[in-house]
Amino acid sequence: MSDKKYVIIAAGGHGTRMQSEVPKQFLMLAGLPIIVHTIQLFENVWNDAHFIVVLPEGELIRWEKIKKKFLKKNKIQATCGGATRFHSVRNGLKLVKDEGIIAVQDACRPLTSEKLLTKCLEEVIEKKVVIPVVELNDSIREILKDGSRNRNRVKYKAVQTPQCFYASILKNAYRQTFMEAFTDDASVVEAAGYRIHLVDGEPGNFKITTPYDMMLAETIINK
Q1: Of 10, 34, 101, 125, which has the fewest CB atoms closer than 10 Å, so is most exposed?
Q2: In the CATH hierarchy, which top-level class contains the domain 5-222?
Q3: Which pLDDT belongs to residue 3?
């Protein structure tokens, strides 16, 4: 396997729950756009990684301004996303020309620790398909047509990113036709017949989705 490393930053969403005209990945967090925090985290651990940023259509100009101001020295390519995360990641994969390791990271996870990034890199080299997960703290219920029912949370995990794969595995998986069940990259790879290996994620590695998440991230970074 090649020692090349690729990081696909999934930044194709508009973040309607953030209630902002500016897509949430471009909002300022402790003096930097959220997406810049996320990219800089990987730079410190995944040395010489090639970055591929997948953006909403119409946001390339805004991105180029951010890149010019904050990320001048980075090796970053950009492409437009699609109707779903599946289509956005597939567009990003078109820019991966060689074998190696690919991490797919949500643009709005700016608090991923170096420890977790190192763990994912080490594990994917051996396991080929690795994703971080965390325990569920709340009770959960399954919604049914006629109501709901309790489920044992011990049997479930919440999934995070970065999700890491051999490039050949991820590219092969994304040759499938889209299905509604494809909510993340691991679900696509699993449907293609590959085993998913889990590593312990971190509670602090949450995805900024709402104004409350933004406030919490700001507090954590300032401390």
Answers
A1: 125
A2: alpha beta
A3: 80
